[in-house]
Write a structure and sequence with these properties.
The protein is an alpha/beta fold. It is built from eight helices and twelve strands. The strands form three sheets. The protein has a seven-stranded parallel beta sheet with strand order 2-1-3-4-5-9-12, sandwiched between helices. It has a three-stranded mixed beta sheet with strand order 6-7-11. Strands 8-10 form a two-stranded antiparallel sheet. It is globular and about 55 Å long. 47% of the residues are buried.
Length: 246
């Protein structure tokens, strides 16, 4: 089996490549570092030649809605079209929990990416992941105002990037789902409590203020908007374990 990984040098991509190699498949890495650009299509046909599966774990450098819409709209179209030309049998994308409910900000862009894949003639699978542990750290900086951090007091099951990569690789070597697999962490937390725990571990003297109106990746959240369903695949690493090894 020949699997092409788009976004192969990123946070999730590099881990996905390693997990796929654990499955014993041939992996082709796609990224700008490899001379392939998913936004222009440069090098895609050559990279996808002979591919059985395409795994799209690309991400936009900006969480802004317009930037995310433009990136995912263009990159996904280019990958699907190149995949169709190459005779790819399975297209896998990484999305985010809440994309089917939160039609704003980054979530809207991921929802439209999912729609593009569903409308494609290619067999597909969607892996929707809970926010990564790193996302909690990112939002603690983005929502900081001096010594105060505003955080929505919503429920969350954050997940490690290793657990997400393992799930993506497992789906990629299997039969197309023609649907969604949700992946989340083993523990449920409140986002504001988790942020306070992370800041304390980092030694930051900031006060966390619960604020239901504070957006997360451009969307205002309901209390359970980021939680998975009952059939979700749960990872193994806890937030405390992740903090301890960083």
């Amino acid at each position: 089996m020949r699997v092409v990984v788009a976004g192969a040098t990123g946070l999730i991509g590099s881990r996905t490549v390693a997990r796929l190699r654990d499955h014993g498949v041939e992996v082709v890495r796609v990224s700008r570092r490899e001379g392939v650009d998913v936004t222009t299509g440069e090098g895609l046909d050559e990279a996808l030649h002979g591919a059985d599966v395409v795994v799209d774990v690309t991400d936009t450098p900006s969480r802004g809605e317009l930037e995310s819409l433009e990136f995912f709209g263009t990159a996904t179209r280019n990958l699907l079209e190149a995949g169709a030309r190459a005779g790819v049998e399975h297209h896998v994308i990484l999305s985010i929990l809440g994309s089917e409910r939160l039609r704003a900000g980054y979530f809207r862009a991921k929802a439209l990416q999912e729609e593009q894949v569903r409308r494609s003639p290619l067999a597909y699978s969607v892996v929707r992941a809970a926010p990564f542990f790193e996302s909690v750290e990112y939002m603690s900086r983005a929502a900081a105002y001096g010594d105060v951090v505003h955080v929505a007091p919503v429920l969350i099951r954050p997940v490690s990037t290793d657990d997400v990569a393992a799930a993506v690789a497992h789906v990629a070597v299997g039969v197309p789902l023609f649907g969604v697999l949700e992946v989340a962490g083993p523990e449920e937390h409140r986002l504001d409590d988790l942020t306070a725990k992370m800041l304390a571990a980092r030694g930051y003297l900031r006060t966390v203020v619960p604020d239901a109106h504070t957006p997360f990746f451009g969307a205002t959240l309901g209390q359970r908007a980021l939680l998975p369903g009952a059939d979700a695949r749960l990872g193994h690493e806890t937030f405390s374990e992740w903090l301890a090894r960083r």
